[in-house]
Amino acid sequence: MALIKEKPKKFIILGQDGAIPYIIEQGIKAGYLKNFKRIKEKGVFTPVLPHPSSVTPGNWAAIATGAPCGKIGISDFTVHIPGEPLNQERNAFDRNMCQAEFIWDTLSKRGMKVATISYPGSRPRGLERHVAIGGEGMPSEGPGYCALTKAQCFITPNIELADPYQWREHQVIQLKPAKSWKNIPEEIKIKREFNFSLLNQDYLCLVYRDNGEDAIIISKERNFKNFLARVKEKQWSSWIKIKLADTTGAFRIRPIKIECAEPSLQLYVSPVNRCSNFSDPAEYGDELTRILGVYQEPLNISALLTGWIDPEGLLEEFREQAMWQARAAVKLTKDMGFTGVLSKWHAFDKFYHFFFQKIDPAAPNFDKEQFDYYESIHKEILRIADEMVGYVLEEKEEQTVLVVCSDHGLMPSARHASVANLLVKHGFTALKEDEKGNLKIDWTKTKAVLYPFVQIWINLKGRDPEGIVEPGAEYERIREEIIKLLRNWKDPKTGEYVMSTVFKTEDGAFYGLGGERDGDIRFFTSPGYSVYRDRFPTKDGVLVKDVVGPYLGDHGSSEPTARFGRGSETAMLGLYGPGIKPGFSPKLYPRLIDIMPTICYLCGFPMPANSEGGILREAMID
């Protein structure tokens, strides 16, 4: 049996939020994921079990702490603290919400530096040797630690966008004849202009035709020679710098359509991204920007849904973020003295949430005529992930362990179940209308409530500020009644049971549940049923209905092993490096909380203080 020549000393975690192991396995077999194949043949590749609920903040924390969600205190997409009003929630991505020790704190105490890149739970930064790059890992498309603005889209009135949900966030402009511009070449006869503002700074855009081709320049002044960027249709401009009080930002433009003569224009403007002061401490992000270029954190998948951007443009944004993270991870561990890096790339999750129904015949809205178009986008995201992995495999130091993992998978949503409406119908949640006719919970008559998404809380005297249910016998009776109600709940359209499992929270110890923040009752929906779209009671009172957008793929409410169509709740794990047994495939799926103890054992690190995960000894060379 082979022996380890030298123990690994460092680690890199490439987090792939929402990646589905079975889809990646198919890509390996089809031959277009050669670097995942390398991990599978030379290391370990396996499905891995998330902890309920299988959502982003709790499970990335589980990976980084080795502790289950019940101990971490984050088992839903937001956090409710017992004793606070039952309709009050906190940001689950905030480091201070996690009750377990992160690996970066464990190692920082012992003089080692660890960096996080867009990783949940990393902000605000704690100990000195932890470096937080990017934001707290929330999948927002708005301003944050990196982005100073949202993306924008400008169109002329003759452009029709898809915008299927009528968000109407684009801006309609008029292209007017250009006036008072200097140094325009004489051969340019057709020229038009408009202006827009970013962060209180004005920009002029000149649209013109030259030698039969349409182009656009962006400038701060009416001088053709002094443009900031010049670009043609479906090309990215160079990054345009914008000076601000505390940082320098950068944005770029991409014309999706230019027709100067008509005139017609659709212009996508990226978020303004910080070029400095987006890490803590700031100097690390500044240095990485100098070496790697601009880091754009938001992945603007909604821009594809609304028709703001073309697929090629979006995929270029996805790829640039992925490769920035991969290159930064190698740079930090190889040249900047870091023991570990944990990054999180959110592309899979975003694509599956919006477009799973386009690529999965199990989805009720599947249209085979659209399959090839969306599957080509899907495959390109898979290839980008594979390229990301390949870069790290080739460039990392030999004694660095590479972990590639997701926090959960996703499944297409077939039906939506409103637990909140069910509780209202059977008298457990009471409603009243405010002066504007909006529904509000009447806490004086409410015995139980769904909050935040997959937890049912009893309105308990002595714990909840407006509690009406007596502890003891009444509390237990109401729990039993609700559990029976949920277990017997059938979808009138399909005849299927909506729930696969319902239990008292303390009976969920097997799943890592049972903490004081986990609610009083927990449930798992049957695969294909989602509960995430209406967490508050609705006036129509409908209990089960067809899923309507924009989120047509989901995760978090079904059992960790659930599968439906091409999707699964199950996450993905790849291990590669010294000490890892080549080609090993475990018979039983490991858990996400096993990842960090395994890394620590391989590298000789102390375990995080609250770690409960196991060591994957079978996957190791003796």
Shape, please? globular
- End-to-end CA span: 7 Å
Mean pLDDT: 95
Tell me what portion of residues adopts beta-strand conformation: 15-25%
Parts with pLDDT < 50 across at least 5 consecutive residues: none
Helix content: 10-25%
Helical run tally: 13
Determine Rg (CA atoms, Å): 26 Å
Q: Determine the oligomeric state from the structure.
A: single chain
Strand order of the largest sheet: 2-35-21-1-20-5-6-19
Summarize the structure.
The protein has 622 residues and is an alpha+beta fold.
Task: List the keywords.
alpha+beta; globular; single chain; five-stranded antiparallel sheet; eight-stranded mixed sheet; 622 residues
Please tell me about this protein's structure.
With 622 residues, the protein is of the alpha+beta class. Helix content is 24%, strand content 23%. The strands form ten sheets. Strands 2-35-21-1-20-5-6-19 form an eight-stranded mixed sheet, with helices on both faces. Helix 8 (311-335) runs parallel beside helix 10 (368-395). The model has no long low-confidence stretch (mean pLDDT 95).
